[in-house]
Protein 1
Amino acid sequence: MRQIFLDTETTGLSPEAGDRIIELGCIEMENRRLTGRNLHFYLNPERPNHEEAVKIHGLTDEFLADKPLFASVADELLAYVAGAEIIIHNASFDVGFLNAELKRLNRPKFEGVVAQVTDSLQMAREMFPGKANSLNALCKRLEVDNSGRELHGALLDAGLLAEVYIRMTRGQDTLVIDAGESQAGGVELAAIDFSRFDLPVIEADEGERTAHAEVLADLDKASRGKTVWKEAVA
């Protein structure tokens, strides 16, 4: 399975209003291993940045002035993503910009070139309903180090997304942290039928029961009678 984590930075929020892509970052993963075969472009948008956008990504008009146009990298991009699953955080935003750029060149829509587009934001909302699911929030929740993310950057964010995705999709039925990290693909645990075992029941003796009662009494006293087990056994 070939997967690509993709992120863009743009001049603004609306491709319909003429905003353009100014940075594109892709991180490749095969069989849950990052390959290092990544793709990264800074692009000349042929229009000014919105001031608020520059505050987010820090890419000024002066910096982008000598960068290539999207048209000059389109073939390389399409060849790179062809047939892969593309994972994007808030996919509709980035795909909307990509399709606008491709439409200008009379190229097919992005979705028609790749195997599928997976929205990691939607995945996160299903896994963590009612919680913040921005990339920063997911990094914090899943203990992914994003201390270097002072500004947004397409390649940086694609790399963080890859780490977040691996942790979000980590299986719970293997003996290794990640099945893709083992040459054998992980060690699967067979289901165990515990009904086959005759498990002995060892009852507490009088001294153990007395000691247990004393511990419960101390806890009840320390909580000023707010313990709940009395109600449960009443």
Note: The mean pLDDT is 86.
Protein 2
Amino acid sequence: MASKNSSPIKREYILHLVLWGGVLLFPYIKFIEREGGYPETFLHELNSILFIVIPSYAFYFWWLPLIPEKRWRWLPSLIIIFVGSILGYEFTDSLFHGGNFQPFSWKQFLSDVVKNSAFILFFLALYLIKRSLNQKHQLDLISNEQVQAEQTIFEAKPGIQAPDEVHYIYADKTTYKVKSSEILFLKAEVDYVKVVTRDREILVLDSLRRWKEVLSNQGFLQAHRSYLVRVDAILSISKGKIELEGHTLPVGPSYKQVLLEAFKNRGS
């Protein structure tokens, strides 16, 4: 059920195509006025870029999206990919020079480390920009909290029970079967959503906005910009907080009135 967030940068693939196209064509443009042009073949240049792409995208698409605990666990693997790509380039590059493999050179190795690290830093900056834009997008969506809260109040009229739907949540290589009635609340955590039931917590790569749409007619309301709560699970509402089974959550001032009305009218 859970899916990854779409990129907040529209048509991000165009940025990637421009980046690698520029890297590929730059040497030819640089040598365009020199006699004989760029001495290396197009295939040779593609080979060079391949071993920059591998560590860059392993870092960008695999390692960075990991939760912090897993990043440290998989850091050695990322380093192996990084170093292996450099050594792989050194070997395959020799094939374009008559197969005469050059002896290992620390100078060349460090030069490749600096070059690949520059691309790693570029993708780190891109990831941070995307995350910042995503957070801004989420804040923009809830800038008018009162209006949103009113729009998400029960679609089911008093006396009509909200449907108890089943959700299949894939997280950490495991698929969980969870009913709406089992969920106490959901919490937004940067690029993840924590789904909390009576007996487990599931951290899934998703957005609270999407869950809000999925659960809009199943008895859930937004209690805070970071929390979505099942009204039937609320035990009490007081100033600045709501009490659930074993949990105390904050409640935003703009959400409180609508939440309080739904709490009073549940089951009526």
Note: The mean pLDDT is 83.
Protein 3
Amino acid sequence: MLYFSGFSLQNEVSLFPFWLKNCKAFCVVGFSYGAIKALEYTLESKKRVDRLLLLSPAFFNDVNIKFKQKQITQFRRNKKAYLRQFLRNIKGKCDINIYKYYKEGTMQELEELLFYEWQKEKLLKILKTGITIEVVLGGKDNIINLQGAINFFSDITTTYLVKKANHILCEVRDD
């Protein structure tokens, strides 16, 4: 298995044992920002890939430019505060110590995450090679527009919605 980490994270692969239990040698997995990297790797790779698993893909196709520019401005203004809030947002009301997976993200990574354009043509190109594509989304994800992601991915890929899960696919407490 080849795994790509989310923005400002490292080694968080251990958060997803349920989704990774059937990932074998020829499986490519990406979480959030890492889903972008996993998709692009799969498109360009000459190595064998049987399955592409996208966990909470960073989907911002439907977000306006003002929102994206505001994120960039806040990151530039106070990187540490921005990243702290980002980690709180992906964790939500979940009892996981997300900070042990922290790795300081860069402006380049944030810009790539926000401005990446998911294209159905890329997914179809991968599917034509016989690779299975699965997408897992959390119903309580407050990072992306969930409905936009569902609309984009569900007619092309096998898409799973975990109704009570947040961005890191952790079940959220009801308070």
Note: The mean pLDDT is 95.
Protein 4
Amino acid sequence: MSENLRNFTSALYGFDAVVKRMPADAWDNPSGCEGWTGRDVLQHQCAVVNGVEAVARTGAMAAPSAPDDVSDPVATWTACREQVSATLDQAGVLGQAGPFWFDAPDVDALIGFVQWDLLGHTWDLAQAGGLEAPLDEAAASSALAQVLERQDMLIESGRIGQPVDVPEDASVGDRYLGAIGRNPAG
């Protein structure tokens, strides 16, 4: 297993942990992502994961693909998670050459980058449910490095907000959240 796959899988299952703990009546609550409910965050994250799965399955550029029906958010997410996991588990998938999203040269680099989105939206979804967000330290460290390398482009394209100052001794997860424009202090 590559380090990128390890971090992506950790981020995937961190999001999964929040999905499974979401109170049934919290899906339409505001999330940590301005203007989005918990259900919106889930639908977006399914779209990203479905897009990654399509790239990995076909070896060709594919767009994110949101599910039409998120009336059962847990079932919708579980299907997306299982499909991307099964696809990424196939021999040779990670080495398929791109370029893919963000000029990733192969599938391994693609998942190494997009895991930042999973981590950020894990925190966002947790805010909608009043839950703690499990941000794996290794994945957060990798995501922080990826975001800082492309921060200007991510801000200009509206993918992240303006950075939020966090204490110098903050955890790597909190530094990551600050880098993507989230205030981990609330």
Note: Residues 27 and 38 are 5 Å apart (CA to CA).
